[in-house]
TrEMBL record:
Subcellular location(s) per record: Cytoplasm
Entry GO CC: cytoplasm
Entry keywords, A to Z: Cytoplasm, Phosphoprotein
Record's protein name: Malonate decarboxylase acyl carrier protein
Keyword Transferase: no
Record's comment on post-translational modification: Covalently binds the prosthetic group of malonate decarboxylase.
Major place of residence: cytoplasm
Natural source organism: Paraburkholderia graminis (strain ATCC 700544 / DSM 17151 / LMG 18924 / NCIMB 13744 / C4D1M)
Residues that bear O-(phosphoribosyl dephospho-coenzyme A)serine: S25
Length: 104
């Protein structure tokens, strides 16, 4: 199991939580929450994956995601072999769920 961390600059605070997906064969879950320090405008991503040796792929997918997303959030990704397309989909779902309200 591999544990990766990434940090990205952000422009705005995230105020709601979101949980999408499940940890299962070929899938993953994304947990998005406000940062511990609301004054620090940055996104912190922790990836726990069952597939070792793909940190460069994770970085590429996250770099692309953060060209469009500017929220300061804590993001936890628990992966069980998801493809880059599924990763991008789950991240977009988490953002949408968080932006729909505080009860996400």
């Amino acid at each position: 199991m591999e544990h990766l961390t990434f940090d990205y600059p952000a422009q705005r605070a995230v105020t709601a939580r979101a949980h999408v997906g499940v940890v299962g064969s070929g899938d993953l879950e994304v947990l998005l929450s406000p940062t511990d320090n609301p004054n620090a405008l940055a996104a912190h991503v922790v990836v726990r994956t069952s597939v070792d040796g793909y940190s460069h792929i994770w970085k590429s997918v996250l770099d692309r995601f953060f060209t469009r997303y500017d929220g300061a959030a804590q993001i936890e990704i628990n992966d069980f072999g998801a493809t880059p397309g599924v990763v991008a989909l789950r991240l977009a779902e988490a953002v949408e769920a968080a932006e729909q309200g505080d009860d996400a």
